[in-house]
Amino acid sequence: MKCEILVIKKAIYFSIDFITIKMTHTKQLKITKLFRKGASKLPEDCEELQEEIQRLEQQLKNKQDELFQLQRNSYRRKASPPKKKAEPFVRPQKIVLSNAVDRLKMDLELMSVLSGIEVQSYVLQDHCCIVYHMQHDTQHQVKHGLRIELKNGVNEVSKSSLPLGFNLEAVMQDFDNIMLPECLGAIRKALVAYYNRLDQFTALKKMLNIEGELFKILDGSHMKISFVAQNDMYEEAEPFDVMLMLDYRVYDIRPRQFSFREIDLPEGAAEVLRQQCAPFKRKPLHKAFKETFIDGVGPYKLVEQREILVSLVQKYHAVLENKQSDASTWKMKEAAWESIQNEFNARSGGIFRSTKTLKVKYEGLKRTVRKKSAACRSELYRTGGGKNTAPPLDNVEEQIKAMITLSADGLESIFDSDFGGRPVEMPKRRQKRFRPNRRDYNNDDTFLPEECSDHTDEGDVE
Predict the structure, then answer these.
(1) How buried is residue 134: exposed, middle or buried, by Cβ count under 10 Å (0-12/13-18/19+)?
(2) Could you list the residue ranges forming a coiled coil in this record (predicted)?
(3) Span 96-119, pLDDT tens digits
């Protein structure tokens, strides 16, 4: 910057000398005398030189300003405090971060609860272990894991503990890299749908029991429901077999589409059933089936098989309700249930039921009757009046109650003022008479008369 200023000054001095020579045509004067004396006469061709001098003077002024700013900034840096040098890093011998670790652990647990995904371990360019925490309704804690190999830039699942039949390939069709957060979230979504479909299937199976036959593949993406239906609008309509088929995608909890095996259906029934099955698109499986074929307004209703079961149980009632527990009684009961199974399967319209299934259904019906009977008794004995809110028994339940009256109603209380009959007498037990031992009779004061209570044998007197 100083060199540039000197060059500009020399250029100015040279221009002034040149003008002076032209003006005087005499010997050159000194610069100081020239400035004091001034020029007496200006030549005609010196205007360009004057403009050049002004331009150089302006450049000189600008350069001087820049030099001033540079010097000012340099002085300012010198006045600022010097920066501290970075101290050398010393590795500590012991690090105590209990609070930070506990806080981090709480945050990770919260993230795993909210997202259901936990990174259990991660080693760069080696492997990554992902754990999925399932939060559906179950008595046990369910987790599923994936081990992803990261060697050589290839992300592949080497080990997994996914549920039986889970279709991981269907999830990976939409992704190229399994390590993407979107892909890991999609696997979690598919697992939730997997367990949701299984829960719906179990609830429907429990509701139908003997009224229908259910089938599904492992992941629940395809289901078949076989049952007997009848047109409720015509009393003379004959019942027919219905097979409802439901198809799901890997992320679906409602059926993507449903269809019927039309070979078993009456003419025109397939289209009516498709319109009647609209609740399957918006409600869980068991609730949709109940609304469609049991409580709904559609023409086709489920033909309940419990009437057939109860009529067959009445036929063998004396054997099945026998309270004896000897071997011959158990054999008679097993033979009766086998007969009920054969007759039920012959009359149920192609739906096969095992002896165990029929037993479970009958025991469930008896429990329902006992609960309703207990509710009716509590409403009957309740004070304060009002409407009876206990659910009434239907015809089938009345038939079951007639077979189990004693266990359903129980014994009447002998202290009930409303009961006017004779109290139930409990069977009397045979009481054994006490016979004292004759050898100790004379030595036992318990059996002595009162007037002889002070009597003692001579051998007792000291």
Answers:
(1) middle
(2) 39-73
(3) 555 555 666 666 666 666 678 888
